Please model this.
Amino acid sequence: VVECAKKYSDFVIGFISQSRLTTTDKFLHCTPGVHLNNTGDQLGQQYVTPRQAIDERGADILIVGRAILDSINRAKTAEEYQQQ
Model:
């Protein structure tokens, strides 16, 4: 995948992955499964905290799904993630 991205770097801007795939800053690394509480859920999803995704996994962009979508106050929950 990385070699394909390098070959077509005029078209590929990054990766969705659990950890950083390259050492270059040329590609964005988007990490899914981010949650303030890093436990799993009944659907088998395993979460990492925003800090873990950035500091330990090298994420440039965090992908937060159900934590915001299932929240009663989505705007407030999104702000909580932004403040992390």
